[in-house]
Amino acid sequence: MEQTTRTSPVAHLTKALRSPVAFSVLAGVVIGALFLVGTGADPVAAYGAVLSGSLGADGIGSTLTTLTSVLGLALALAVPLRAGLINLGGDGQMVLGGMAAAVTGLYSPLPAPLTVVLALLAGMATGAGYAALAALCENRFGVPLLVSSLLLSYPAASFASYLARYPLKEPGSSLPQTRQLPDGVALPAFGSSTVTAGLLLVVVAAAAYWFTDRHTAVGYEMRMTGLNSRFAAYAGVERKGLTLRLMAVSGALAGLVGAIGVLSFPYRFLDGSLTASGYTWTGLTAALLAGAAPVGTVLASFFFAVLQVGGLSMERTTEVPRELTQVLQAIVIVFLAARLRFPRLRRKRSDKPVDDPVPQGSQSPQGSPDAQGSQDTQGELV
Amino acid sequence: MFFDSDLLMSALRALTPILLAALGGAICERAGVFNIGLEGMMLMGCFTAVATSWFTGSPWLGVLAAALASAAYSLILAVGAVTLRGDAVVLGIALNLLAVGLTSFLLRTVFGVQGTFDDPSLAGLPLVGGFSPLAYLAWAAVGVAALMLSRHVWGLRLRGVGEAPDAAATLGVSPVRYQYGAVLVSGVLCGLAGAQLALGNVTLFSENMTAGRGWIAVVAVMLGRALPLGVLLAALLFGLAEAAGFRLQGLGLPQQATDAAPYVVTLGALFLTTARRRRRPPPGSPSTPPSAPSSMSPSTGAVS
């Protein structure tokens, strides 16, 4: 439904409606409605509550705050996904980034505004370094990135949790949290809302990703590797270096989200608060839904932020648990995954590629690295 | 004494769910379906086991229902990856996400609680000789799976399907049927793993209670090169790490350090085995672990 808001020629519209993305979102909404009927709720009222609760005057601030985290992590996962790599370690990278930002904010001797900048940079650098470690695991030791990034996430979360509970714990507090950052060490907020300059940072990151993807050689290499990694290698793309760089960028973005979280309310590192909402998985879902295309990732992130915030108001008005929105997200991806394919991720399935019912030509395994073609397909959301 | 029989006993208890799930993953791997959704299938098993045990009062019906429910859940992967030829990795991730959402949703609609459902009258599995009956079943399953894969015609055909689907099809073996079978078996085993976790190790259900064990099982499949005995060793390694973690916690190490131990040990083992494997002639790309080792009959003879 989000897809059709921008009116365009009828042909474009029908093509968009037939796309796997539109189909999957529609299927998710319909199955979600069945769930609602099953629990005795009125689907129209429930979905109405989702929309009014997230986009109305009361909810929009909350939606934009959620969007900051969801979009940041969606970008973090989209960047490697564009080249067919999946980074599942977003949680660990984000938490370490947040912890680095908290430590910098607490102990930096610089004036407050500079400390904020330094804390953001520290968060990004830490996230980047930790994600690069996962890339090294694949490059040097042959441990698949999917597995190494995820497994590394758990010790990172445990380590940050340890720091927040013991050495850096706020004295006298019963909560596992660090001290509050000094006055002024915070991202400026818009008016009295919870929306901070972090949203701007993430939007700038999205714009940078769009520009890189569209107009630079690196973006072309990424897309080419994602479409057909063997062709890309033949054409001179150095895979290991690309993996390392993309993972570093990915981790930097995840670390940025962590730093933004710490530099916004409650202005401290609170154990578990960054990961509790499952933004990493929501971000991954958004990036997958958009096929990692820049504009699509922004739209999909907004869609999921609306779902997540709207789920709360649905829970209030119709007493349907908000977890339903999580079910909805996953259903969308189940439907999409059955019809989408990323060549790099496929395993020994090259037996009958030509017969595959690929909806748009450029997504076929042979995928000519035709930049414009892939843009059309992957940016189907637009 | 740090390494004693108690440690081994608790390691054996900790490994049961991992072992059951990893066996399922190994069978899928052998049939050529990458199953990364073990975590989600286990979680569905956990919830079904607890819910059924609660409503019927019988933990055995809970185990049965968990196996059936996980098998039904695994059909999504079979249809998506085998019939529709979709992306198994993305499907598996989606199944894991769906299970977290669905079980939390059901926890609230069925039991009206959030977080954890824990009731003294909820019946758990009895212990036989210190272990739940499912633990013995898991050990037996290792032997059965090993014999099936190396001796029985079904196992040989399954491997043939995984290694050369076209050749298998030419010989009249339906790859689709064997792949469906493998995915369903993995669903049943993950359901049992979930039941063991929720009714054996403890007697409760809490949101996301698998907590990465399904992923560890995926790694155990890689570590064990999709061989039942290899998977057993890998799961034992995890169980030892978890048990040693608890022991160290008793000795004053913070809980966060021991929480991280199994993942670090697993990752370390993965480094060592892949690094060692790399020095030999390359057996294909590292992300496609199981080419049949030479100790077993060659795959060419497998399908005939």
What does this structure look like?
The complex is a heterodimer of chains A (382) and B (304). Chain A has 15 helices and no strands. Chain A is mainly α and 382 residues long. In chain A, α2 crosses α3. Chain A starts with 9 loop residues before the first helix and ends with a helix. Chain B is mainly alpha-helical and 304 residues long. Chain B is 72% helix and 1% strand. Chain B is built from twelve helices and two strands; from the N terminus they run ααααβααααβαααα. Chain B has helices at residues 5-30, 38-56, 59-83, 88-110, 133-150, 153-163, 165-170, 175-201, 213-223, 228-250, 255-279, 299-302, and strands spanning 116-117, 205-206. In chain B, strands 1-2 form a two-stranded antiparallel sheet. In chain B, α2 crosses α9. The termini of chain B are far apart. The model of chain B is unreliable at 281-304 (pLDDT under 50). Chains A and B meet through α7, α12 and α14 of A and α3, α4, α9 and α11 of B.
Secondary structure: elements and pairs:
The complex is a heterodimer of chains A (382) and B (304).
Chain A: H1 10-18, H2 20-38, H3 43-55, H4 60-81, H5 90-107, H6 112-141, H7 145-165, H8 197-215, H9 217-227, H10 229-234, H11 239-263, H12 279-289, H13 294-318, H14 323-339, H15 371-378
Helix pairs in contact in A: 2-3, 2-14, 3-13, 4-8, 4-11, 4-12, 4-13, 5-6, 5-7, 5-11, 6-7, 6-11, 8-9, 12-13, 12-14, 13-14
Chain B: H1 5-30, H2 38-56, H3 59-83, H4 88-110, E1 116-117, H5 133-150, H6 153-163, H7 165-170, H8 175-201, E2 205-206, H9 213-223, H10 228-250, H11 255-279, H12 299-302
Antiparallel strand pairs in B: 1-2
Helix pairs in contact in B: 1-5, 1-8, 1-9, 1-10, 2-3, 2-4, 2-8, 2-9, 3-4, 3-8, 5-6, 6-8, 9-10, 9-11, 10-11
